Amino acid sequence: MKKMLKIIGIIILVPILLIVGFLIILSFVPAVPKNYTKEVKTGGEIEAKYLSKGKYKVKSTKSKATELTKYNYVYYPEELENCNKKYPVVVVLNGTGILPKKYRALFEHLASWGFIVVGNDDGSTGFGKSADETIKYIKKANEDTDSVFYEKIDIENIGITGHSQGGAGVFTAISIMEEKEAYKAAVSLSPTHEETALAFGWNYDLEKVDIPVLMIAGTKGDFEIKSVIPIEKMNAMYDKIPSSKVMLRRRDAEHGQMLYMADGYVTAWFMWHLQNDEEASKAFLGSDAEILNNEFYQDQRIDF
CATH number, domain at 285? Predict the structure, then answer.
């Protein structure tokens, strides 16, 4: 009898161990391909330019953070350590189950364009709390004489981006949180739409958004177009935003792919708003804005 119970125990245990092992392996699989900047197809010169790597060599640092955020991850231009100038910042909010270790390539890409890019290990970014903690960390680092970022951070030029739950977190951070005034521009990628967000307790208020917002989603897969951000929900959200805004959808892009497939325009948006790059602005401005004629996008709306 004992032998039979032992065999049954082994039979039950083996699948559990296999599942646990699979989840452990999966946790290390990148959510963003290492060479995505070379693999993603582009439909315009501006998109192609800003999807490519920038001119800056990149370094990174990791430091212990709060109980909520656990660790701060910062990617920055290597020259920062020896230059007497300030650099704009992009705060990155995680999607559900996607922590910085799974999309390092995206952090590195933004940093190569001259940004200090900051993320953390918060798995509940929709509530906006970790966004506030990140802003406080940034401000403290800029005033800390022992920090490599001492007086190197351009506090007047801070942007924020996030995907999925992180996309909802972007709206929470810029609409109702204590540090909402810190941001100058935002990008929300495939954000969890209002009804679902409210059900989770992510209580953003689109009518209180007062900075330029770029919202991008995909058009492929039931999870993206039926659950996360149906086009009718996206349009309704867009209509509520009173500030300058742009929306578009990437054709044939699934939910997970939206973390990186529109990164050419994400980078251009921040280059325009945080670095005053006029060439980048041409992707979004005017009747001949590049996004309007890009074959890889649809459902474009522009309001400035």
Answer: 3.40.50.1820
Mind listing the pLDDT tens digit for each residue in 243-288? 999 999 999 999 999 999 999 999 999 999 999 999 999 999 999 9
Sheet with 245-250: strands ordered across: 58-64, 71-77, 116-120, 87-93, 153-163, 185-189, 213-218, 245-250, 297-303
Which domain range does residue 253 map to?
A: 33-303
For residue range 20-78, what is the model confidence (pLDDT) as tens digits?
A: 343 343 345 579 999 999 999 999 999 999 999 999 999 999 999 999 999 999 999 99
Query: Are residues 66 and 3 part of one domain?
Result: no
Domain count, the chain: 2
5 plus 92 within the same structural domain: no
Identify whether the C-beta of residue 75 lies closer than 8 Å to the C-beta of residue 58.
yes
